[in-house]
Amino acid sequence: MTKYNPDKHHRRSIRLPYYDYREDGVYLFTAVTHHREELFGRIYDGQMWLSTFGNMVLEEWRRIPEHRPYVQLDAFVVMPNHVHGIIVINHATVESNRRDVGAERALPLNDRGAQHAAPQPNPPQQSGKRNFGDMRPGSLSVIIRAFKSAATKRINAYRNTPGAVVWQRNFWERVVRDDDEWNQYRFYIDTNPERWASDRENPQAR
Predict the structure, then answer these.
(1) Where in the sequence is the domain holding 61, given as residue range(s)?
(2) Domain of 63: which CATH number?
(3) pTM to 2 decimal places
């Protein structure tokens, strides 16, 4: 998992009303496999053991900034049939670098440092289901679609199933509004394998 660095990931308060998902900000997302098929590995003793396909998904996640330098990766977990991740979108840093201007001047900053919120084991309330309607360059939808597409191509090439569906078409997203939420969602992601038995995406959950 890529750890958050306050000197690298410049934070600001995120506006919710009429939010433009191409704007700089911090986003939590969840993407689930087609029919919730458990392709990516298994949970043993509260730990996730990745399959070959799960490792492909993790590798494609880590490659996102190679193709999109305005994206910074935060917490991420591959589960048996879904992934949770936090993405930081920061176009302003890229533009500042092009102008040889310090990235610290690109955004209004919050220099307080991360607040250590009380851990919240409950799943975050998702704000909405996205169906890739916003396909403008740099938007959250474009980033997630490309990530899922890259993983799908590798998985299907490996198992010789060209064109097979790997993911559900939609994904869930939420704007991370402040430091407290950010830390709560990190905790939720980091400890997600421990709660697989009761996970809402687990077909065997009771």
Answers:
(1) 25-197
(2) 3.30.70.1290
(3) 0.74
